[in-house]
Give the backbone structure.
Amino acid sequence: MVQTPSKSLTLNEFLVKPETKPASEYIEGQIIQKPMPQGEHSAIQGEMVTTANATLKPNKIARAFPELRCTFGGRSIVPDVSVFVWERIPRQENGGVANRFELAPDWIIEILSPDQSQTKLIKKILHCLKHGTEMGWLIDPKEQTVFVFRSQHHPVAFDEPEQLILVPEFARELTVSVGELFGWLWE
């Protein structure tokens, strides 16, 4: 992640600035630009969104969003994948999906890129859990491991191909094994 040196901005000042590519996040008064996604990251992110939506969206259980800005708890972050329970998706007056999401996702999924800090991603997941997120995944493609974080529980590592990765209760219909998730890198 690239830190942009500048005078300290408020969250509101950050939110009116133009978007950057890749996205910048506002964390503890600092603007931090996310690294440009690479192949492994993009493959896993795309398949995760598609798989989650294929299972959860038809019955209006939840919806997965890639690279969605979420602003809450004094921060503005852009998780790799944000999943929201259907009833919590912000809506416009006409019923369409709103542009601004000012709440924590129900499930956050982060994919570790080669030049990212694992510690900073864990801190982002912990911030989300503190503000109501049910579960966070940290996917490490190099180690082929998925770390699962939940409030009031110890993190759990999933690294055996046949293991089904723990999902939030609302997503219990979704099953993804470690082998399937990392198999997306060869499809």
In short: The radius of gyration is 16 Å.
